[in-house]
Amino acid sequence: MKLHIFRRAIFYFSGMVLVSCATENAQYGKNVRNTPVERIKSGNIAHRFYLIGDAGNADQQSAQSILEQFKTHLDSAGSNSTVLFLGDNIYPKGLPKEEGKDRKLAIEKLDDQISLVKNFKGKTIFIPGNHDWYSKGIIGLKEQQDYITEKLDDQSAFLPKNSCAIDRKKISKNITLLTIDTEWFLADWDKNLGINEKCDIKTREDFFSEFESELNKNQNKTVIVALHHPLIDHGSHGGYYSLKKQIFPLEGKFPLPILATGINLARATGGITHQDLSNANYRKLTSRLKTLLANRDNVIVVSGHDHNLQYIEEGKIRQIISGAGSKNEPATTVGPNDFSYGKNGYAVLNISESGDASVSFFGRENNQEKLLFQKQVLENSEYNPVIFPSEFPAETTSSVYPKSFTRKSHLYEFLWGKNYRENYSTPVKVPTLQIDTLFGGAKPGRSGGGHQTNSLRLNTPKGEYVIRALKKSGVRFLQSVAFKNQYIEEDFAEGFADQFLLDFYTSSHPFTPLAIGDLSEAVGLKHTDPTLVYVPKQNGLEKFNQNFGDELYYLEARPAETEENPIEVLGTEEVIKLLGKDEKYKIDEKNYIRARLFDMLIGDWDRHHDQWKWEQKPEGKLIYLSPIPKDCDQAFVRYDGLLTKFILDFPGLRHMQSFDEKIKNIKWFNMESYPLDLAFTTASTEEDWLREAAFIQNHLNSEIIASAFEKLPKEVQSSDIDRIKKNLEIRKNDLQKYASEYYKIVQKTVLLTGTNKKDKFAITRLPQDETEVKIYRQKKSGEELVFEKKYSKKQTKEIWMYGLGDDDQFEVNGNQSNPIKIRLLGGLNNDVYTINKGNNVHIYDYKSKKNTFNTKNGKITLSDNYDLNEYQYKKPKFNVFSTNLNLGYNPDDGVIVGLNTSWTKKGFNQNPFSSKHTLKTNYFTLSNGYEIRYEGIFPRIVGNWFYQIDAGYTDSHYIRNYFGNGNLTINNHDTFEEKYYRVRAREFYAKPSINWRKNASLFSAKLIYEGLKIEKTENRRIAIPNIVDENVFSTNYFAGIDVGFHFENVNKKVNPSLGMKFDSKFTYRQNLNNGDKKLPTFETGLGFTHYLTKNEKLTFSTYAKSKWLLSDDYEFYQMATLGGDDDLRGFRFDRFYGKSSFYQTSDIRWSIGNFRNAFVPLKIGIFGGFDYGRVWLPNEFTKKWHTSAGAGIWLNAIDMVGIQASYFRSSDKGRFVVGFGMNF
């Protein structure tokens, strides 16, 4: 029939068209088509980069000519040049060990590349690619690094070093090279024992933070980011294939046109391999990096991976791909300034002394070198200063916000609070800061600040200072916290969200930082001394006038090395590293505890790891790391709106507590600082905490408090300040109580670590439920005690002990029936466990390395799970209990009112939690019915396996429609109301399951026990005699299994332009009322989404699914059904019942464009769809296929929330539907 032809056309013809647009020939975007070799700005070359990648097949004759040409360039290059080999240096499987059978050939391939730089006067750097990992992961990388660095006699010839994530190399004073091992991010760490052992970066999230930090540090330089996997790609790894590839798949020699298209379509949409951009993990990497680069105009990204030459511009991102050193693959262009070439070649990147950058791509045509494309990549727009006045008044009167911004209605203030809003629009008279005369003349350095504050560093003869704007950035906060994977700053600037956050920031007093210094000084804490100034736009700000000036700032000195303190000031991550390096490093716990209690006193809840600096204080053989608190922006905050208080009661925001007379909840107040407190207060006792609380109480009197707040401008000396001082006195009086309460919280779970040297942990169980822990450093001279403490089970529930590096010993002695739970984690190397009594002792170590167990006691868990075995100080988190209201409505049940309650445990084994229990209760007003549903999730049983329990009971409620069995049933919508076909039921179920999840895949195996009783509702179709088996009106009990696999990969959560979905499920049900009734079923579905145009505005999406009942022993509610939002959209839900079914539903979607509004930027589009399908019954002979067609409109907010409205017409009239997102 014609529908079958239509279906085949959709799957085959469109699939080929969608992915067939790449060629080997040079292609040019419309803007560069007529001038592929652009005239480049003249200027002296500061540095030249020669870029070649994927040269690891260099023994092939086809690659020799291009490499010889490349060598000619290198031989004539000067010393101010660098050649970058961009990964995949050895095909196909990296560098084996000495005894490896393929070692000789691998060395030959590497030597072929090294020989290219024999006469090269510049620097040579190799970075790793995915193929370089294929010889036992980091083992093969080390082999390659050792060989290259020895051969070139340069320890920086292979970067990043030691299989780490990122390395920085200074090329010149104005050029920085960042090398990234992208396969490090994509690899399975559980299969790479020892990964990150010699690296500062231990997590993928830390890598992103480091990358952002490096971009900030080098914002005034030209930055080259070299990484093997490109961020943007228009070759095969990006989902673009040649027509030839549609016929010859996987480099085969036999034509398989239909199969080839299917393979390419699955690869482009499914992301089946993590080497393709469509892969979920690869997408996590690129989307995050692209977001961090989106507003940078000084960065060039260079990559290999795809075997071609490409230049791509996307916003401010400049991507160069030079991966055609020894292989070639077709590619295409998408943007107007893009270029692609699918044959062998290389690129040359020139950086001029002025900061301009240009790229040239070379290939060979007709056995001659050819300049294929040349483009200006970066153009350093010279700073054309606006001439500002050279003199300013000594003082200026100004406010943070204008009056118009802080003027709010009574209703707004009732809902969102008054906060300190008036203080933000109160004009204050302050000194005027003139940059070029500050401390003998200051020069602006680089901009920075946290994720809320705009700041600028100033270099002066007296040291480094910083100015911090009092007006914060709402959109920067959104970008860094809520939208890490997409750039939104331009779309949200000055929009509702930005303006709302700016108003929300009025919850903190703008001028109280002026009082913090004196308060800190009184209790002996390090602090900054900010000065409130007005900074006008001025010549001294130079190019920073664009983003700074004409507002109020705090001027303060940055912590730095001085004559009094010549030792480097450290960040928290550096401190963690030092603590693991040597036992001589100790936290100055006394001052840290005092600082933390001071935080509680002033109500500063924002004390995460980045809010501290640390100075080193040598004392004898030890070096104490003493805290320097950074800005206290959240001190004395005021949240007094009805909605504000409601929102801040959500679990993730509970730490944001108002500065009242009492601390509302001491545990949640310290949520941000809790991991650091566990890591940095291991030796302290409750007496230590009480002593520091008493110290603050004794040294901070009313006179000091009053004097400190007198530093605030006189214009804001109001009742707000009186309230702060009053609450400060009250909280000070209660400080010992808070110290005692919080100490008990910190002691519930204890974290102890050794060093990366040989340590011994001696654990002794003592009477009265006490456990003593002693830690020794094992030296040649003997054991040296470095830690000792006793713990009581009344306070401590668990102790986690990490041996870290080297060979460690763990001994457990003593006998208690139910002691404190001990978790011992040896880490890498050979650790020795001697457990004489194993009650409540859990041992964790790597399965693939040697350990010594002198015991059969204790519970031993051996696995290569990286997250489980490695020390991560941020791991401990609070358990979370939460409740929220549930509201709904349908015509049969009426208004649905319920409560959702969840308990999330975040213990030792998290992924991302240890267990989660959810209880949902609902009440149906129309039927007086109710339902109770429970879900329990227990992650990481082994590897990616997790356990889940679903159970529930539902009183009489609407569950489905019933029009009768078969493909030819009639909907008498003109005669009967909609509810005539509705079916109500009571049901209960219990479904324990074991599941496996990895990336886009989910496998599930469930045991089923369930009961269902259909309600025989009068005046409905279900009540017609003999229309269904009468036994369904009694409770039927079933037992069985469900085994299913689900795969779904999309490039965007809402309205994707690329995606693949596959479902397959087998079920078996045994009717316990009638043992002869056994019902196996099988269902499977497959769907694709792919763009039709290169700009991805027009997309095609289709999904097809079938279901079969494999016996005749079924009840009507177990049959295959069609109708509703997911299949035949023009028919009501469950419109057709059969023993088997098939449907296909397809859409063409067009994104019309973007538009900004006062609330959130939106994308708008339209779509048209066509569905067809049918059911089959034995003895029903019909060729009828049901169809529905329709159209709709969709709205998409920032690719995270989507809504669509559509109308689909069918033989049953039609349906109008409004819903969230797209169904396929």
From TrEMBL:
Domain of life: Bacteria
SUPFAM superfamilies in the cross-refs: Metallo-dependent phosphatases
Pfam families membership: Metallophos
Signal peptide (residue range): none
A GO MF label: hydrolase activity
Domain Calcineurin-like phosphoesterase per the UniProt entry, residue ranges: 48-307
InterPro entries for the chain: Calcineurin-like_PHP, Metallo-depent_PP-like, Metallophosphoesterase_PAP
Gene3D superfamilies: 3.60.21.10, membrane protein fhac: a member of the omp85/tpsb transporter family
Entry keywords, A to Z: Hydrolase, Signal
Name of this chain's protein: Metallophosphoesterase
Natural source organism: Chryseobacterium manosquense
